[in-house]
Design brief:
Layout: H1 5-8, H2 12-33, H3 35-43, H4 65-70, E1 86-90, E2 98-102, H5 104-120, E3 128-131, H6 139-151, E4 154-156, H7 163-173, E5 177-180, H8 182-194, E6 206-210, H9 216-226, E7 229-236, E8 241-247, E9 254-256, E10 261-266, E11 280-286, E12 297-303, E13 305-306, E14 318-319, E15 324-325, E16 330-332, E17 335-337, H10 339-349, E18 353-364, E19 367-376, H11 385-403, E20 408-412, E21 427-429
Parallel strand pairs: 3-4, 3-5, 5-6, 6-7, 18-21, 19-20
Antiparallel strand pairs: 1-2, 7-8, 8-9, 9-14, 10-11, 11-12, 12-15, 13-14, 16-17, 18-19
Helix pairs in contact: 2-3, 5-6, 8-9, 10-11
Bound molecules: 5'-O-[hydroxy(phenylacetyl)phosphoryl]adenosine.
């Protein structure tokens, strides 16, 4: 089922014209309103009038998270401050967050992306949508919420946490579609089983899962345990949030809403565009956004593009399941975490703590767990058990409040964190997303 058949099934020719017209507009918008873009374009002597259509997109400079950080908080906005009706934010590489600002029209576009995803998973007017993505600065909850309302469905804004209450509400309200991270879906399914309930006690038909990488095996596990159809949804806050792309019933990859967000794949080495089918880094240009339009934003997600026809009739270019990232960002229980954020906490927490640390991420009982092993400074006595224990507790607390995810901290003796001769290897990720 489509939300907007005309847009979702535009012919390739129609789409090219539409994308070209909007690219020309957005380039002139950022050139005239965002000093960073003007400087980047002036530097390579590129004028907005050099961009005549979508085929010229490769001429434009890239945008990175660093640009957003350097312009924190509002320097990338291309609309007057008072036109911004919403702010969201996700983790940055340092203590500062990556900010996104939306005008009313941006919220409409984003909501439509989410409404398209919901409709593709079978939602329609009145469908009860249980939204267990977090509400707040994270885009998951509010994105799906606005999408559900735009569709005329019934949104249940449960947000994250309190699993027994989630299960009770899903059952009592007769939720038909579940929206949450795939790892939380498995956790929910296991808790449901522990409570002695079965899928027959629920009215669930489908789930829309994203915000973190997941595998075909996880899909099968969710589908089997909850007796639903599981759909992938992709997105990132810088570009809008969930609904940048989503799967249809054929599960042939996520259809990107490429009338809103133009995707490219570039080589991680040369940054040159790669042909369809080749794996590289995903790059997006927002074609319609007003608040914070981004040109050739490096999403850092590794995937490939597929423009072959899909039996569903949608013409949105598809991306293969995300296999990894070209930076060191980890996604732990749906929360983006950079090792550099953890390092900042270690440095600021207590002078007795060194910066020799190692992070191990694993999945235990279908939930992500993070262990941080850290050494004390060489001149600090390790044998005062009480002092070490209180330091450990303080670190755990500081990490939770800084990154929003619990970690187990282990204070280890000096020299026990493996040293590297080249770049320090800070992270071991034992989860397997292949
Ligand atoms: O995770 C938006 C979102 C919310 C998407 C709910 C889907 C559902 P950020 O917090 O900015 O935004 O994180 C964006 O998460 O660059 C990917 O690395 C990862 N990611 C998002 N969706 C998927 C997915 C939201 N379906 C970052 N598969 C992205 C794999 C995903 N990775």
């Amino acid at each position: 089922m489509y939300f907007n058949e005309k847009a979702e099934c535009m012919t390739k020719e129609e789409k090219k014209v539409y994308q070209s017209e909007n690219l020309v507009k957005v380039v002139s918008r950022v050139y005239n309103n965002v000093p960073t873009y003007r400087a980047k374009m002036d530097e390579i002597k590129l004028k907005p009038s050099d961009i005549k259509g979508i085929d010229d997109i490769w001429k434009l400079p890239f945008t990175t998270k660093k640009d957003l950080r350097d312009n924190y908080p509002f320097g990338m906005f291309a609309a007057p401050r008072e036109e911004i009706v919403r702010l969201h934010a996700s983790s940055g590489t340092t203590g500062k967050l990556t900010v996104a600002g939306y005008t009313k029209k941006d919220i409409e576009i984003w909501s439509e992306g989410c409404a398209r995803a919901l409709a593709a998973a079978g939602a329609k007017k009145g469908t009860i949508i249980h939204i267990a993505y977090g509400y707040g600065l994270f885009t998951g909850g509010l994105g799906m919420h606005y999408g559900a309302e735009l569709l005329g469905a019934t949104a249940v804004p449960v947000s994250g946490g309190n699993t027994p209450r989630q299960i009770m509400l899903m059952k009592d309200f007769g939720a038909e579609i579940l929206c949450c991270t795939p790892s939380y879906a498995i956790f929910l399914a296991d808790e449901i089983a522990k409570m002695g309930l079965t899928p027959a006690d629920f009215n669930l038909k489908a789930g829309i899962f994203g915000a973190e990488p997941w595998t075909a095996e996880m899909r099968h596990e969710i589908e089997r345990k909850l007796n639903i159809k599981a759909y992938d949804i992709y997105g990132l806050s810088e570009i809008s949030g969930p609904g940048v792309g989503a799967e249809c019933e054929y599960h042939t990859g996520s259809h990107i809403n490429d009338d809103f967000f133009y995707p490219e794949i570039v080589s991680t080495d040369t940054l040159k565009p790669l042909p369809y089918g080749e794996r590289g880094e995903l790059v997006f240009t927002t074609l319609l956004k007003e608040g914070m339009p981004l040109i050739r934003y490096r999403a850092r997600d590794i995937t490939a593009l597929d423009d072959s026809p899909c039996p569903c009739g949608r013409t949105g270019m598809r991306i293969a399941r995300i296999k990894g990232r070209s930076d060191d960002m980890l996604i732990i229980r749906g929360v983006n975490v950079f090792p550099s954020q953890i390092e900042s906490v270690l440095i600021s927490c207590d002078a007795r703590i060194s910066t020799h640390y190692h992070i191990t991420v694993d999945r235990v009982n279908n939930l992500d767990v993070m262990l941080i092993e850290v050494e004390l400074q060489p001149d600090v006595a390790f044998d005062e058990v009480k002092a070490v224990e209180s330091l450990r507790k303080k670190l755990e607390g500081d990490i939770t409040s800084a990154i929003g995810v619990n970690a187990e901290v282990k204070i280890v003796s000096c020299g026990s964190v493996r040293r590297s001769e080249g770049k320090a290897v800070r992270v071991t990720d034992k989860r397997n997303f292949d």
